[in-house]
Amino acid sequence: SQHPRISGGKKSKKDVCASSDVEVKNTSPMSEQDSGILDVEDEDEDEEVPGAQDLVDFSPVYRCLHIYSVLGARETFENYYRKQRRKQARLVLQPPSNMHETLDGYRKYFNQIVGFFVVEDHILHTTQGLVNRAYIDELWEMALSKTIAALRTHSVSKSPGSCSLSPTSLQGYGFPVNQLFDMLLEIQDQYSETLLKKWSGVFRNILDSDNYSPIPVTNEEVYKKIVGQFPFQDAELEKQPFPKKFPFSEFVPKVYNQIKEFIYACLKFSEDLHLSSTEVDDMIRKSTNLLLTRTLSNCLQNVIKRKNVGLTELVQIIINTTHLEKSCKFLEEFITNITNVLPETVHTTKLYGTTTFKDARHAAEEEIYTNLNQKIDQFLQLADYDWMAMEPGSKASDYLVDLIGFLRSTFAVFTHLPVTGRFGSRMEMRTDLLWMEKTPKEK
Questions:
Q1: CA distance 402 to 87
Q2: Mapping DSSP to helix (H, G, I), strand (E, B) and coil, where does residue 216 land?
Q3: How far apart are the C-alpha atoms of 118 and 207, rounded to whole Å?
Q4: What are the boundaries of the region Disordered (predicted)?
Q5: Which of 73, 109, 151, 331 has minimal CB crowding within 10 Å?
Q6: In angstroms, rounded to a whole number, what is the distance separating the alpha carbons of residues 54 and 50?
Q7: Please, what is the end-to-end C-alpha distance for the chain in angstroms?
Q8: Residue 293 CB neighbours (<10 A)
């Protein structure tokens, strides 16, 4: 108890052993090698990463082992040490009841397990027989079963990145960690569902806060910023003087960037799973397809089906989804760049995002068609029109003039619509409008 605590490190251990040897050299013929304490030299003196010997003072263990060896009771100390460490292992492997509540709770739990086995590995390699491989393997099997059971009980899918480092760290010390990697793969789908729920809320917030109006830009800096966020090129728009407007609203670059953030989150989870590039690419593409075809699709459909949505908003949704559909090829390239798996690979999963945006566009067009017919019916019901006139007039009635005026203002909203879809081309709409302007006799 009076011996000063040594801070750690290879040099400190030798000092400790030398001190112990001085105390017993006149009473015992046994050397440090006989006691089982090995002098392990540091292979890389410039290594900056602290090891177990730098963080833990092992001198009490070495001292006791030497003393018991000198007294001829080495086996007694070995049995005592192993018994106590088994008890400590059970405490370390018992997860706190509130572990699942915070990310730090998971980290603390995993760090304790890693720390325990790093210490035992150090003892294994710096002593002769105090612990052996069979003893380590026995503890490791117990740890595997208890750790996997704990992780399945506590929903680790909320923070899988916190546990992915544990098997990687332990693997570096020679421990078999295949079961831990298999467990992480098992929760992959669960984690994907967690991400999808999170991004569902993200998309809802973006769509609810959007003003559904083209983005105005007043200078070159703002223009380049938006182009940097979303892949868009239009030679005609570039030639126009400022101020000018992008055809899409703000939710287009926001949704596009959130899709990329989702892809990054999937990649982060896969980093420490020891998967091949093809497997990582496949996992990311499948998860992204779910994000597009299920999560984002549902969010868009909910906006389109809202009772208070107007024609202007529906038209802007059609325009926005058209541009997002065109951006899918850039998302393909983005995934290819981060996984280094070419899209021409036989087993590469393709993105199905185009169907999501086409379905949303068709749903918006149907809503426009329905709403427009309802408005025309309401106009007919409110109109004060003499349906029983004996003779046709030489010009269109005031009622038809008002109806055409109403339709003109309504069709003005469709100016920037794509030329295909439920309504056909804008030219067809204009032709229909001209036909309605004719007098009954001309018709």
A1: 89
A2: strand
A3: 50
A4: 1-51
A5: 73
A6: 6
A7: 112
A8: 16
